[in-house]
Amino acid sequence: MLNVIASRVASTCVLPLALIVSSGLLTPQTLRITEPKDGTVVNTGQVLTVVVDASPPFAFQEVIIVGPSAIGFSQTLRSPPYRFSLLIPLGTRPRRYSLFADGTTEPGKGAASDPVEIQVERPDRPLKLTAKPAVLDFMSVGHNDPITAVGQFADVGELDLRESTRIKYVSDNPRVAKVTQEGLVTATGPGSANVTLEYNGTSVVVPVTVRKPPVAR
Amino acid sequence: MFNCLALVRYLANMRRHRFRFVAIAACLFVLDASSNLSAQSCTRPATEGSDCDCNATINPGACSLCWNAALGDALACAITGRCTLADVYGRLNQCLDGMAATPPAPPTPVSQPGLCEGEGAGACEITFLDPVNALQNGNAILTDPATLATLGKPVIAIAADSASRVVLRIRAGTVGDKIDITLNGDGSLSTVGGTENSLYLSQLTAVDTGEYPMTFAVYRAPSNFSRGAPSNDDNIDQRSVSFHVRFPDGTTVDTPLTILRPPVVLVHGAWGDESDWATFTPLISDPLRNFFVRRANYNYDLHGAITTSTPGYTPALLKKARGNALGFDFAAPIVLEEIDTAIVEFRQTRNAAAAQADVIAHSMGGTVSRALVNLLRYPGHDSFGAGYIHKLITFGTPHLGSPLAADLTQGNVCVRTFFAEHEHIALYAVSLPGPPSPNGCGIYTTLWCGGSGDLQPGSDALGRIQNGSGPTVPAALIAGITAQANVASLDNSLSVAGYLRSRCANDPVAQRFTAQGWRTEFGEDNDGIVSQTSQLAGFTATPVGLNPVPGVIHSAGLEGGRFGLGFTGPSEQASATSIAGIQDLVIRFLNEQMNGADFYQLH
Questions:
Q1: What is the pLDDT of residue B469?
Q2: In the predicted model, what is the mean pLDDT of residues B368-380?
Q3: Which of A66, B153, B433, B597 could be bridged to B130 by S-S, CB 3.0 to 4.6 A?
Q4: Residue of B55, B94, B275, B314 best to disrupt the A interface, most CBs of A under 10 A
Q5: Beta strands of A79-161 (E only): which ranges?
Q6: B277: chain A residues, CB-CB within 8 Å
Q7: Which SS3 state, helix, strand or coil, does residue B226 take?
Q8: For chain B, percent of residues with pLDDT exceeding 90
Q9: DSSP assignment of A140-163, as one string?
């Protein structure tokens, strides 16, 4: 008996619901960034095109691209096609940044896209590349310390380069000091080594010393 | 090329060889000559003992000075064995890498005829030594003559920070000689281990040091670089004092010591990084005063380390949170380390003694800089226990918090989410892997406070600053305030402010985001983020007529158009061509006496 009642209720409700959904009234209103792709590398000074797919296409009153403060916002567009131009400012620090598309469907309501990540890089060489610290002196094996690369640029002065994908770290003596691609130096044995930081054709050397453990008497 | 430094070490080990200093000097001379420093190209030592690889064209005069100082280090290293050759080569490399900043001209001793000429080279020699580490026992300077005679780094300058010291090492003719020293200039003299604060020391006795008879004194740096009118110190980058030394036979020697401006460290605010200072001219490119400027940065990638937060965010947003969204407990140790690093770099590249830096901080950078004073490590030995900040100058800093911090963590979910997409993630408290926060965050005793938690008016973190356990710091506070022209654009429906009013129609803070409504957020003049009262920590704005600075907004991120939220610039950190007031005040305060009328003693 209960099954019969349930099936009648279902048949009564499902048809109007299907009609509402097909009309778009209950279709989820979504935004999706289709361009650029995740991981796209963009140089500072470059104009980036951002394309957004809205579903349903005319559900949004306004759509805007939201970047981090270094990049900022796009203009708002009030109808498709949602194609935006974003200038990546010259002074932007090299690293990964997220872009979101955000839209308003009606006052107080709206949706945001999943983020797309871009990697911003500078195309030029720094006037000078320095390492912080300039020298590493480990008191024993197993200790580690990070090295930070800092570039001096003509337009913006100092920029932290640790999150650039173009910074490379190489140890000339991994038996004494090994270094990760994130710049973490670990003392692996007593002696001396040089860790070289390279960035866009410039380099700086960090001398590393690892002391011998004291001899037990 | 023979292995010169190894030879130096060998000779140094011959403790009693009477000619070893001559041999060492000759060896270093050969090394110096081989590096061709007088030519246009400077040189870099590739490996220990090798000849040099000429590949960089740099200031030959500056290079020579720096190189000579580095060779002095090498000599000290070889004699004492208390450093490694890697240290020496690091020093030489820094010397060559640091040529952009030209070290000051070397002091030129002026000798009068008498004992100094008659006793051969080296007699009456006066050397200035940086005592940090090598000549210290805790905060005090060692008194052992043999140590003072052989250790310490020779320098040619000292920063006018009131904390720095140099040891004067004076060679005499005979043990027991009585020597007088007169300081011509500011700062003060004392005997080693003494507490005098004098311009004159009389009858210092030369003692046996194991080599030459010597006597020692300590010079403490002046508190201020600029001595005010009628001097022209406000517009120069170095000046000097001199030491008039009188020996028993009437011979006198006058030796100048260069006085430099302390290094300057810039500290950014919440959600910012070091690139925020790119337009902060003329400070960062001042040709007259030649400031030594470094930028602290606590905008670290946390690699998604935050697992939970209050208020909550989606995982996709939370993993965007960076170090610059966290609170004082996270940022203060990082900034302290960066200030220390800048001072060390200053000492190396300027060949100077220095213990403190002038800190210029924007927004939350000001409260972070005050918080670091309470860290146990702050009064370190290398600052002689005085701490690393000489003067603190803040602008746009919420010393008493900001109502926005509360608004963004309580309710207003739509605006908060939109800000998070903009990488402005408002965090009250977060969990981080590793040890718990040293102070907790309100009721969350093991969590770390976010920046928005610490900046709530009346927060525990602000209370800890105001009732600080650390030493006080002379602080000058600058306020920026908006004018009508800065906020009128908020009413534009096409601005981001207009978008937010529609998108977040149910959020009270979004509805206040208008030219008229935004003032009600603060109830008084403000820079768009912080009230005037909070920027001034409740004190009166001085100098009258210049502070607060009108017509500015808090940061470039608020500006309208493509970049920001709909305000109209210039921002407090904009270039001097846009807004001169704040930068003029910063330079004025850098030149002002640390006990001047515009400075408050703040924790």
A1: 82
A2: 96
A3: B153
A4: B275
A5: 82-87, 95-106, 109-112, 116-121, 128-132, 136-138, 144-146, 148-153, 157-160
A6: 157-158
A7: coil
A8: 68
A9: STT-EEE-EEEEEETTTEEEE-TT
**Bigger pLDDT: B397 vs A75:** B397
- What distance in Å separates the CA atoms of residue B381 and residue B398, rounded to the nearest whole number? 31
C-alpha span between B32 and B69 (Å, rounded): 11
- pLDDT tens digits for range A10-62: 455 444 544 444 444 567 999 999 999 999 999 999 999 999 999 999 999 99
Side-chain half-sphere exposure of B428, counting CA atoms within 13 A: 19
Question: Is-contact B92 B67, C-beta < 8 A?
Answer: yes
Mean pLDDT score, B530-537: 98
**Contact residues, chain A, for B422 at CB < 8 Å:** 66-69, 73
Kindly report the average pLDDT of chain B as a whole number: 83
Report, as an integer, the average pLDDT of B286-315. 92
Work out the average pLDDT over A69-80: 92
What is the pLDDT at residue B70? 52
B563 touches chain A (CB under 8 A): yes
Q: Sort B180 into a burial class: Cβ within 10 Å, 0-12 / 13-18 / 19+.
A: middle
Give the Cα separation of B358 and B377 in Å (integer). 18
- What is the chain B residue with the closest CA to A68? B422
Q: Report the amino acid identity of residue A33.
A: I
Mean pLDDT, rounded, for B299-309? 93
For tokens 């490590």, what's the residue? B377
Question: What value, to the nearest 5°, has the Cα angle with vertex B587 and ends B582 and B593?
Answer: 125
- Do residue B275 and residue A64 have CB atoms under 8 angstroms apart? no
Q: CB contacts < 8 Å between A and B, how many?
A: 129
Residue A119 β-bridge partners: A41, A96
Q: Does the structure show a pLDDT above 70 at A6?
A: no
Residue showing tokens 């960066």? B338
Question: B518 vs B408, B482, B483, B512, CA distance in Å?
Answer: 15, 11, 12, 5
Q: Which two tokens stand for residue B119?
A: 């006793």
Of A102, A135, A159, the CB nearest to B274: A159
State the complex-level ipTM. 0.84
* Predicted pLDDT of residue A214: 64
What's the confidence (pLDDT) of residue B588? 95
Per-residue pLDDT at B7: 44
| Confidence band of A116 (pLDDT split at 50, 70, 90) | very high
Count of Cβ atoms closer than 10 Å to residue B463 Cβ: 10
Residue B556 pLDDT: 86
Beta strands in B155-237 (DSSP E): 157-159, 165-171, 178-184, 188-191, 200-205, 207-208, 213-220
pLDDT at B565: 80
Q: Which amino acid is at B45?
A: P
> Does A192 contact B417 at a Cβ distance shorter than 8 Å?
no
Identify which of B345, B310, B351, B350 has the alpha carbon closest to the alpha carbon of residue B327.
Answer: B310
Of residues B276 and A14, more confidence is placed in B276
CA distance B531 to B480: 9
Note whether B70 and B95 are within 8 A (CB).
Answer: yes
Q: Which residues contact B93 (CB under 8 A, 6 or more apart)?
A: A134, A205, A207, B44, B45
- For residue A50, the cross-strand partners are A84
**pLDDT score at A86:** 94
Nearest to B226 by CA among B215, B239, B211: B239
Q: How many CA atoms lie within 13 A of B329 on its CB side?
A: 22
User: Given an 8 Å threshold on Cβ–Cβ distance, is A92 in contact with B85?
Assistant: no
- Residue with more model confidence, A99 or A155: A99
Least CB–CB distance from A135: residue in B86, B299, B503: B86
Contact A29, A104 (CB under 8 A): no
Range B275-290 burial, b when 16+ CB lie within 10 A, else e: bbbbbbebbbebeebb
